[in-house]
Amino acid sequence: MKLLVVTPTLGNSPWLAETVASVAVAGKGGDHEHVLVAPASAVAELRERFPRTTVIVEPVGGAGMYAAINAGVTAGRAWDVMTYLNDDDVLLPRFSKVMQVAAGAVAEGRGMIVYGGVRLIDAKGKSIGAIPISRFPSMNRQLYAERLEPVFQQGTVVTRALWEQLAGFDATFRYCGDSEFLARACVSGAAAVCACGAAVASFRLRAGQLTKNRAVMEEERVRVDTKLRLLVRGRTVRRRWARLIFRITNFPVYAERMARHGFVTFDELLERGG
Q: Which one is predicted more confidently, 254 or 216?
């Protein structure tokens, strides 16, 4: 089974070498390809710095991050599962658990999303908490209806069968294309597996990142909700139960956040950068 990792980058991230190294470790012992998608002006330097990666030119005309990722996936050679990784994030050793589950889906030819836990780190790489995720994917549709995101992009792989079925990311989104894709997969009835509740990847909070623009991100979230009809009227018993289970299973995440940062929501934590 071959893993494809796509990283969109401007080429100037001080953490890019760490990101590339983490992919090399995560793919060690197996077949993998790491594709960097960058502006034409940065391609030559990146190829020299990272000779074992594939470096391609991003789509022209400022098409955005998700168009760049789509291009990177298209450039990937004979892959079976894919993920994308920002140029400041890292894969962790437990990512192997995600790959083990994904291998079974690939062997069966199934379209599937496989995911694990994600840690938040600061600019220096210090752990500052975790992200709540759904341990029970059968409840994910109800969680979307409750405005809770059950799956986080970092540490998540998509089988080729599902990627092709859904035709990749919707590049009209600037901030929430990954969330839209994962929600679209859920609405389509695609199978999902939580392979590991512990962290399999780290998401870096830092100054200047896109996730800090909360107003625009909220606008795109509403657009996702509308496009996929995620929100339905009336709180059913199933929705209430899913929300309760999500809160209970993520109690350690909330307790750690409160101990480290006080009474803040996840969105407020993203906005303040830890």
A: 254
pLDDT at 60 over 90: no
| pLDDT tens digits for range 12-43 | 999 999 999 999 998 876 799 999 999 999 99
Phi-psi region of 129 (alpha: psi -120 to 50; beta: other; left: phi over 0): left
Report d(CA 24, CA 20) in Å as an integer.
6
User: Over the chain, what HEC string results?
Assistant: CEEEEEEECCCCCCCHHHHHHHHHHHCCCCEEEEEEEECHHHHHHHHHHCCCCEEEECCCCCCCHHHHHHHHHHHCCCCCEEEECCCCCEECCCHHHHHHHHHHHHHCCCCEEEEEEEEEECCCCCEEEECCCCCCHHHHHHHHHCCCCCCCCCCEEEEHHHHHHHCCCCCCCCCCHHHHHHHHHHHCCCEEEEEEEEEEEEEECCCCCHHHCHHHHHHHHHHHHHHHCCCCCCCCHHHHHHHHHHHHHCHHHHHHHHHHHCCCCHHHHHHHCC
pLDDT, the chain, mean: 92
By the 8 A CB rule, do 217 and 175 touch? yes
- Split at pLDDT 50, 70, 90, the class of 208 is low
74 Cβ contact partners less than 8 Å away, ≥ 6 residues apart: none
Tokens of 143: 């969680």
Distance between CA atoms of 51 and 2, rounded to whole angstroms? 19
* Amino acid 153: pLDDT: 94
